Each structure stands twice: as C-alpha cells, then as structure tokens.
Amino acid sequence: MKKPSLEKKEIELKEITGLDLVNIIVKQNYIEQDDIDDLQVDFSSKGFDEAYSILITSNLVTSDLVGQAMSEFYSLNLFDLKSFPPNKDLVKKISYDIASQYKMVVFAESKMEVFIATSNPDEKLIPIIKEIFPDKEIKLGYALPESIEDTFLLYKNNFSDRISDIMSKGEQVVPDIVKEIFEDALAQKASDIHFEPFAEEVVIRFRIDGVLQDIGILPKNFYENIVNRLKVISKLRLDEHFETQDGSIRYLTKKNTTVDMRISIAPVMDGEKIVIRVLFRYVNDLGLDSIGLSDKAFKLINDNLKNPFGLILVSGPTGSGKTTTLYAAIRDLVNSRVNITTIEDPVEYRVDRVNQIQVNEQKNITFAKALRSIVRQDPDIILVGEIRDNETAEIAVNSALTGHLVLSTFHANDAVSTLPRLYDMGVEPFLLSSTIDLIISQRLIRTTCPHCKYSQEMSVVDLKKVVPGIFKVFPKTKINVFKGKGCKECGFTGYKGRTAVFEVLAITHDMKDALADNIKSIQTIINEEEYISMFEDGLDKVKKGVTDFEELVRVVKVPEKFAKE
Length: 565
Hints:
Blueprint: H1 18-27, H2 33-39, H3 48-57, H4 63-73, E1 77-78, H5 88-91, H6 96-102, E2 104-109, E3 113-118, H7 125-132, E4 137-142, H8 145-151, H9 159-169, H10 173-187, E5 192-197, E6 201-208, E7 211-219, H11 223-233, E8 245-252, E9 258-268, E10 271-279, H12 295-305, E11 310-315, H13 322-333, E12 340-344, E13 355-358, H14 367-374, E14 381-384, H15 390-401, E15 405-410, H16 415-424, H17 429-435, E16 436-448, E17 453-459, H18 460-464, E18 478-484, E19 495-506, H19 509-517, H20 522-528, H21 534-543, H22 549-555
Parallel strand pairs: 1-4, 3-4, 11-15, 11-16, 12-13, 12-14, 14-15
Antiparallel strand pairs: 2-3, 5-6, 5-10, 6-7, 8-9, 9-10, 16-19, 17-18
Helix pairs in contact: 1-3, 9-10, 10-11, 14-15, 15-17, 17-19
C-alpha cells in the first residue's frame, strides 16, 4: 500500500477571531451581552487567545465553559486533552507541520475510526486527515487552542538533543538555552528550576508534582555565561560571586503571556547554584470547587467565608498549597460589593479587583506595618500572606475583632496544633476565642497517572503493618485500590499531577470557651469532635482511586487514632 503523503498542505481555513469567540459564547447563553459591554473592550481588534485571556481573567467564564460553548456551537464532542492527554506515538501519526498548521492532533484511534481534536473545526480538514488514515472514518472534536499547543510538546526531541542543536548554531546560544529551559519548565508545569554546578557539568532539574526530576546536563564551559544572562534579566550584580543574591524575572513566553519568576543564587563549591521559582500570575479557573475538597469540607469553608468578620487560617509546611487554597477562597469572594486587600511576600497570583500589596522590607513595608495601614483603607476582607511573628498575629486577630474577615496562612503541622502555636507566639487566648472560626490544614499528594492506572487487590493485613487501625476504614480483609504502572506520560513514576488532602476544623462554642479558659484543655474537646483528619481525607481519595496508599503514607503522618488497633 502506498504510504500517505505527509507534506504540508495548502488549504486556507477561516481564522476564529476574538469577536467570533465572544459572539459564540453569548449565542450559546453562557454569558450575557451586558457582561461583555461592561468590559469596555473592543473585541473586533482582538485575536482568539487575547479575547480568551480577557474573558477568563475577568471571571466571566472558565476554560471548561469556553470549551463547552465552542463544541456546542460546532455540534461536536469536546475532547478534553488536559484530563485525557493522548499518547505520544498516537499524536506523531500526523506530522508536526500539518498538525501545527491546522491546529489538530490525534486524540484516539480504534480499528474503524480515528478521533481528531482541533481548535479550528472545518470539513476541509477531512481530505487531509483521510490521506493519513485512508481506511478509517474521521471523527472531529473540539479542543481549546491552549490544549492543542500543550499537546504539540509531544513532538519535541529530548532535552540534550535540543541543547546540542542550539549550541551547534553558534549564535544567540546562551539566551536560546535559557529560553528553552524556561519553556520546558512551563510546559511540564514545574514549580522550580534548579541549575546545579559540579566539577565537569551542570545538572538541570525541575520540581514537578513536588518531586525533583533530572532534566538534562549542560557543559560546564557555558555555565558562567548562563549565570550572567540570568543575573542580567533579574537585575542582580554581575561582579558578585561569593554572596547570596535574590531577584525576580518577568518572562515573556512563546505564547506572549507573562510569567513572573523568583530567582535565588547561592555560592557552592563548584560555582553558583541557581533556583528559580515559577509564579503563575493569574488564577484563572481556580475556585474552592476545584482544589480537591470533600463535600463536607467545602460546605464548612463556604459557610465560614460568608461570615462578615472572623479569622480563618490555613496551616501547613512550605509548599503544601496554602496560598493556592487562600486564593481559591478569595476568587470566590470577589464581587463589586466588597473591598479585598492582601499583603503578600511575594505576590504569587494576580487576581482582578483585589488590591495586592507586596512586602518590601528594604522599603520598610513589612506584614505588620502594611496590615496597620490596610485597616485604614476600609477593607471588608483582608488576606495576610503569612503570620510570622507576634506583632503580625496580634494585628490580624485585632482586625478580625474589629469587623473584618481575615484570612491567613500559618506554619503548623496540623489544625489541632495551630491553636497552641498561636498561644506560644503570644496571642492572648481570650482574643483567639473571640475571633478564630476555622482552621484548615493541608498537604499536597501526587495523583495516580490516568494513563497507566490499574486496579490491584491488597490485603488489609498487610496494610495493618503500616497502619494498625486501618480496619476502621477498611473492615474487609481485601480491598481494591488503584496504582500507576509507570509510563511515558508520567515519566515512569506512576503519578501525574497533584491534589491536596485537607482537615477542616470548625471552632465550636465549646472550643472557644476552652480557649478563653484553659488552652490546654482544647485538645480533649477537639478529640471528641467528629472532624475528618488529613489522613482520613487521604484514605477517601485512595478509595476513589485519586492516589495510592504509599503516596498517602509518604506525605501524611498516621494519626494517633489509627496507630492502634
């Protein structure tokens, strides 16, 4: 059989403009025309991507709703490439040239049919696809442009080959290497980028889903220029090599979106080690309903966010997702009737209609001083990035006492230990009892890879060796759980993505009385409350196949009530 031609075709398709997008969403009744008019934006001059970004950041729609509206307009199925990313080998059945020209990728394939995801559906695509799959029925489906672009990353060569290609060109080598590393980090949703110099080489590592992974090796002779390049774009001193330096980078991506990054440089034995934290500026689709809360926890938090005043704390170690949870709450609270002000170090997320203050100790803008100023700015809701000291704690508590809803993060191991920690910090128990309403504690755990997930029967007897009281949740001798085998899509780890496990402690009247009277008695009362611990929330996620038992035990300490049979 003659092999189908994969040469780039020349067929013109009508471009979907920003105005087309707006008209489709209005026509499908997902938003009102008045909402569009209120934005005062000339969408006739906007492309699809820019209009999409405006609608998302204005909180008028979510990406899911845009995808649903577009697929309904074209009378096609919506192919969710983020939740169900296609296999790399399958995607490569269409050449990159054709796929990128017509914004389409292979989503799935059966013996009789091939399913093509495209952001620009048109019947003119059928003959092109038919040349590649001559014996199959072609089924088109809609996918968002950003999902299509993310899937194109599957066409990329490995890191070392791409770096070798850049170095062989001989021009713009260092800027292009830095750009390639940044784009890879963003594409893989890395939270941190590590440059680690050793005697003969430089190791590049990304923190993905909370775990560091080796990405590639750079030759040592290029590293000094790479360090200088990073210092220049982050406005740090080029002549300083023996002291730590901190700075920030604003990076313009290939998609013309801006990403803020925080850079830290520290001298080590073989050079200067660099760690870059990626800070995503906008919280687009983030809400309390999308961060992994159980129904009970969601209701508790939602009910307390309706209070006109009080203190809500999110506790956990660094990197446990506390800020994300706070901003999910803030995003749900944004409306024209409230004044929301935040103090952060740094401002990690940008949210429209929220007044955000960046801590700057060099300019004498500390948490405590900024908080004092905020209360004179007529706020309804105050978000304090972190309660670090007695002064900030007391001002936050007093702000809640004087009619403000205050949300903040706090370093404590769990919800129960948060109250004694605040007391140890010097906050008066009677003030705590009058203000604190809710404590959320959380950890981030990796989720089982959907591509290689399989069901496995486990013996509860084996689990009891790790968690003696496991039978309280799993009374049967055998249970079915889900694990990941490990595949290309998850880097052979068995995990892809992360979610949070939560414990939500509502402060009852009995607890408040105990706080005011004797904080040491609070533990006894809390133990009598039927609140769900992080470990129990994690076990529920194990039951549902979201994660596995090994990951839960790795991240969350087994509570006392499960430590005994």
